[in-house]
Write a structure and sequence with these properties.
Elements: H1 2-9, H2 13-33, H3 37-57, H4 61-81, H5 83-90, H6 95-99, H7 110-124, E1 128-132, E2 146-151, H8 154-160, E3 171-175, E4 178-184, H9 200-211, E5 215-219, E6 226-230, E7 233-236, H10 240-251, H11 258-287, E8 292-303, E9 309-314, E10 318-325, H12 327-332, E11 339-343, E12 350-355, E13 361-362, E14 368-373, E15 376-392, E16 395-396, E17 403-411, E18 414-420, H13 421-424, E19 430-432, E20 435-436, E21 443-451, E22 458-459, E23 466-475
Parallel strand pairs: 1-3, 8-11, 15-19, 16-20
Antiparallel strand pairs: 1-5, 2-4, 3-4, 5-6, 6-7, 8-10, 9-15, 10-14, 11-13, 12-15, 15-18, 17-23, 18-22, 19-21, 21-23
Helix pairs in contact: 2-11, 3-4, 7-8, 7-10
Length: 478
């Protein structure tokens, strides 16, 4: 319980946003894909993932590898096999339906499929005649129909009434979610008060509506109008929602009552709560698992140093950190992600002591700091000054026995350097790098660099950093 409280109290605002964002993505997947075959398979894959985690925790290495392979292969299978189903869900007419709408399911009802097919044929001016029987038996008045028994889909409807289809001139009888009969011949109405532009298809629709309580939808081949025949009346329906309402009322599919609506809202709320709990558990198991301890040496990073001062000395150059987290996160840590940062903005010339705290350490998300060694760092700062110093040649080796070095001078003879005041007060001469005597000729020049000690010293702007030694030798008298 104490460890759980510690984990919760160590949450950052970025961690909370991370959990809520992924939880919402999971929730949107539920809203969009609920009821689909892809969603059912996804549930199975989730169960397998849980099984894999249990196998890992129990040390079942081979089992966990096998289940991990099945989960990876299953994700590929879902994309390949259910690509059409996934595409139909994501092809929403409005972005709102994908991002935040929860009022309607992504799975399209049979009535919605029929209405989409009807209005698609209307746009194409593809003539059609569709019968939705009521309580009366239409078999007594319908003739020459061909048994079909095909599950309704938009493609099925369009193929039945495709102009090259032999049965496209007849009527399709729809019951439930199936087209049970195609190419049916309906009785014609004998009314003489119909508009002249209503042809045989409309008279057939009205004829069946006069003889039975069936609802008949006719699509005009000339104008693309959608006409509904019911109770001996014809009316043009221009809006999809209106036709959906008419079909629902005819089939007894009323709008969800309050109890059913409340049930759906509760299921959506439960799915949202489950998403948050599930992702929180996954997040803690991945980022705050606490199953691995690693000792990490991090170099010190100094920030906001006064440009007029320099760091002369530090008690340590790096700090040893003991970090805790999941094995996966520990393996992914990069050196630049762990830093100990000391702010020198309030430091003064001389020794300065800093205490290493959690606030001074930069860590990746999900990594917990267990201990620090050392807990204090001493940093000595000094004021920067300029000082002009003479340069002396630092000879090395031995001159050949028959030579005598008679003259040697360095150009320039003095160099201005920048460094800490305390350091420069104790330096009276600068030296060149080692110049070997055994390589000297009778006379010549040698380019050479300054040997700045300590390394914190720098050559002032305007001073030469390259020196030239001019020398002259003579033969030793025997």
């Amino acid at each position: 319980m104490e460890k759980l409280f510690f984990l919760i109290s160590s949450l950052r605002w970025q961690d909370i946003i991370d959990i809520l964002l992924v939880s919402y993505i999971l929730f949107r997947f539920y809203v969009l894909f609920r009821g689909t075959n892809a969603f059912r398979v996804l549930i199975g894959m989730t169960i397998l993932w849980f099984f894999q985690q249990v196998a890992v925790s129990m040390g079942l290495i081979v089992t966990s590898w096998v289940v991990q392979g099945i989960v990876g292969l299953g994700a590929f299978i879902i994309i390949v096999i259910f690509r059409n189903e996934i595409r139909s869900v994501l092809q929403a007419s409005q972005l709102r339906a994908i991002l935040w709408d929860v009022s309607s399911k992504a799975i399209i009802s049979t009535i919605e499929i029929i209405v989409q097919g009807i209005y698609d044929m209307g746009l194409r001016k593809c003539g059609a005649l569709m019968v939705f029987p009521g309580k009366d038996d239409v078999e007594e008045v319908v003739q020459s129909g061909i048994s079909w028994r095909g599950e309704i889909s938009k493609e099925m409807i369009l193929s039945v009434f495709f102009p090259d289809n032999p049965v496209h001139d007849g009527a399709a009888i729809i019951q439930g979610d199936q087209i049970v009969e195609v190419g049916a011949i309906l009785p014609l109405s004998r009314r003489d008060d119909l508009p002249t532009y209503y042809g045989t298809r409309h008279r057939a629709a009205l004829g069946l509506a006069e003889a039975t309580d069936a609802l008949v939808v006719a699509v005009s081949e000339e104008r693309g109008d959608i006409v509904v025949a019911k109770d001996g009346q014809l009316r043009v329906v221009k809006q999809k929602r209106k036709l959906e309402q008419i079909l629902r009322e005819h089939r007894g599919v009323s709008i969800k009552k309050g109890r059913e609506l409340l049930k759906e809202k509760l299921m959506v709320a439960a799915a949202a709560l489950f998403s948050v709990i599930f992702i929180t558990g996954v997040w803690f198991s991945v980022s705050r698992g606490g199953d691995t301890l690693v000792t990490f040496d991090s170099p010190l990073v100094y920030l906001d140093r006064d440009p007029s001062m320099e760091i002369v000395q530090t008690s340590v150059n790096s700090v040893s950190l003991e970090l805790e987290g999941s094995g996966a996160l520990m393996k992914s840590i990069k050196p630049d992600q762990v830093q100990v940062k000391l702010n020198l903005s309030k430091s003064k010339a001389g020794p300065n002591r800093f205490t290493i705290t959690r606030e001074t350490i930069s860590l990746p998300p999900g990594i917990v700091l267990k201990s620090v060694s050392p807990t204090e760092v001493e940093v000595v700062l000094d004021i920067l000054i300029e000082k002009e110093l003479p340069v002396q040649i630092d000879w090395g080796g031995r001159l050949p026995d028959h030579f005598i070095l008679t003259e040697a001078k360095v150009e320039p003879e003095t160099v201005t350097v920048i460094g800490g005041k305390r350091i420069l007060e104790n330096i009276s001469t600068l030296y060149t790098e080692k110049v070997p005597l055994d390589n000297l000729d009778v006379k010549g020049t040698i380019p050479v660099n300054l040997a700045l000690t300590p390394a914190s010293l720098k050559i002032a702007p305007g001073s030469k950093d390259k020196l030239t030694i001019t020398y002259l030798t003579s033969l030793r008298n025997q």
